[in-house]
Design goal:
alpha+beta; 39% helix; TATA-Binding Protein; 5-stranded antiparallel sheet; 109 residues
Length: 109
């Protein structure tokens, strides 16, 4: 009896991980380039969450805040004709400093 219950819980748990939303939690636009927006946000996020990392090129910039298990915050900044589109993916429902992270994003747009 215990094995089927445990198996069912494992399947449900894995299904929840596999069905993470593909839509961003928040989106913003900016007249600045992805590099300008990302390089403005990066030090502010690193002050709040030292584990913040960045990657990118001329058309795309990404900031990632990771925990031990997965990326909790992902900020994708894509080049558009008029500047940039910023997509924020939030994995953790109750993240520490999320209000301050949001403020940093808005200040740099």
């Amino acid at each position: 009896m215990r094995l089927p219950v445990f198996s069912l819980l494992c399947v449900i748990g894995l299904a929840g991980c596999a069905s993470a939303p593909n839509a961003p939690s928040k989106t913003f636009t900016s007249s600045k380039s992805p590099e300008e927006v990302g390089s403005c946000i990066l030090p502010k996020w690193q002050a709040l969450r030292p584990d913040t990392e960045n990657t990118g090129n001329q058309r795309h910039y990404r900031l990632t805040v990771s925990s031990k298990m997965a990326a909790d915050e992902i900020l994708d900044i894509y080049k558009t004709q008029n500047g940039s589109e910023v997509s924020w993916y939030q994995r953790e429902p109750l993240s520490f400093n999320r209000g301050a992270l949001n403020k940093a994003v808005r200040e740099c747009l």
